[in-house]
Amino acid sequence: MILLGKIYKSGIFIWIMSYFGKIRDNFFKAKNREGFSYLYTAVIGLGFFTTAITWSMYNVYMPLYLGELLGHLNRVGLIVGLIMVLDNIVAITLQPWIGNFSDNIWTKWGRRMPFIMIGIPIAAVLFGLLPVVSDSLILILVILGGFNIAMALYRAPVVALMPDLVAKEYRSRGNAVINLLGGVGALIGLMAMGAIYDISPILAFVIVSVLILLCLVALIFNIRETKERVDVEPKEKVSLFKSIKQMFVDKDRSLLAILFAILMWFFAFNAIETWFSTYATDSSLLNMKAGSASMLLGIYSLTFILFAIPAGIIAKKIGRKRTMMIGLIGLISVMIPLVIFSFVSIPGLRTLVTFLPFNWTWEIIIDGLLLFFGGMFWAFVNVNSIVVVWEIAGPARLGTYTGLYYFFSATAAIVSPFVFGALKDVIGVKYVFLYAVGFFVLALICTLFISTTGVESDETPAK
Fold first, then answer.
1. Is the CB of residue 265 less than 8 Å from the CB of residue 381?
2. In angstroms, how far is the first alpha carbon of the chain from the final one?
3. How far is CA 456 from CA 94, 170, 252, 312, 462, in A?
4. What is the tally of structural domains in the chain?
């Protein structure tokens, strides 16, 4: 008590209360589009957090479940890749339509929140059931289909929510906060849940289901969509087909260039994300346990978190295009040593050492270090790409173009695991990083053709 009294008299207590008072004031001002609040934007980002934490676990563990169920068949990689493709087809089929639909409706809950309020509870329940039905191929396919429909129902609206509620001049840092929350979600899914998964797979999935339901509660109590608070004319209607046609007839082909760049770098990313657990658990490669492999990949997400906000700041200083190009060149540079390690066995690197609580080889530690830098460069790319799409879209097409963004990224999620799964059956999983390098190079070439990117505080898109 005496210590507390001294702190109060010293003025520290008053300063702390004043500081939190400013955070509170900024929060409520941001709700009325009267400035920027990191806290308010983070609350909006809880919706994206739910997608990141679920997809990170889904992409790591589903190939393992399916591989065990189908292990007695030939061409297992091809079949698993095909199943992973089928459950993502729902995403590219629905997301552009749902994004466009959310641009053109208004309810008492707003235009994005109704999709979020329906999609998250269904996704939470079905996600929690995945490890429960993991020994039944029919049940797991049914649950996978329902889960993907639920996720597609709210993914485009939940991402379009931020540019709706945050003024244009703050969207770069706003998207950095959103990606920060996404990175935290992926990190929890890969590392924290990876540790729990080795103890109880069901417990890990149930914890995540409860967590995303709590995120929904926070969104319902804090987000109020009204026609006065969003940056669009309420009577303006947007046609999906006209929007798609427009991007082909515009003289400025920046939208096409960024969308195809997104397609290429997600071809690379999804192959790594889907097949990394198989790569890392292969006895001839890293020979790790599934949970440890998940935690190793989590290093990638950790540095994505650390560099999400700096990626937005750097883009503000040097431009989004340059920042994305630096990120792609960096990713290619990081992947090349991983390619070498996949094909060249260096005996000294296979020595076991104690690293923190783990007994890992030097090769695993070096791979982790490379993934650390990979996450940084991925932040440079991923934080800024969708903001470029928003800049080109304008306020009336935010949901529609967000849907197109996810159409291209989900197309990669569909095709890439299938393509590499087929290649894996012929040439082996060790080619996964070489495969990724090729598509990162193609993404870099596409990025060269982007001219309109916008910069923070601009009134109109800049060249």
1. yes
2. 61
3. 31, 7, 20, 9, 10
4. 1
pTM over 0.90: no
Q: Is residue 217 part of a domain?
A: yes
Q: Please give the angle made by the CA atoms of 194, 122 and 183, to the nearest 5 degrees.
A: 40
Task: Name 144's Cβ contacts closer than 8 Å, sequence gap at least 6.
Answer: 62, 83, 87, 130
What is the radius of gyration, based on Cα positions, of the chain?
22
d(CA 67, CA 76): 7
SS3 at position 100: helix
**What's the token pair of residue 108?**
């008492």
Per DSSP, which regions of 320-433 are E strands? 352-355, 358-361
CB 172 within 8 A of CB 387: yes
- In this predicted model, what pLDDT tens digit does every residue of 321-373 receive, in sequence order? 899 999 999 999 999 998 988 887 776 666 666 656 666 677 777 888 898 89
In a domain, 210, yes or no: yes
Residue 6 lies in a domain: no
How far lies 362's CA from each of 178, 334, 367, in Å?
Answer: 34, 17, 8
Would residue 318 count as lying in a domain? yes
Is residue 441 classed as helix, strand or coil in its secondary structure?
helix
CA 450, 451, 453: angle at the middle one, nearest 5?
Answer: 90
At 107 the three-state DSSP class reads strand
CA 240 vs CA 91, 356, 447: distances in Å: 16, 52, 25
Range of the domain at 436: 42-225+238-447
Which CATH number fits the domain that encloses residue 379?
1.20.1250.20
Residue with tokens 């929140």: 113
- Cα gap 340→338, rounded to integer Å: 5
Q: How far apart are CA 439 and CA 409, in angstroms?
A: 13
Token pair recorded at residue 199 = 């103890």
Q: What is the pLDDT of residues 42-52, one digit of tens each?
A: 888 898 899 88
Half-sphere exposure of residue 384, counting CA atoms within 13 Å on the CB side?
35
Report which residue type is found at 276.
Answer: F
Q: Contact 420/437 with Cβ under 8 angstroms?
A: no
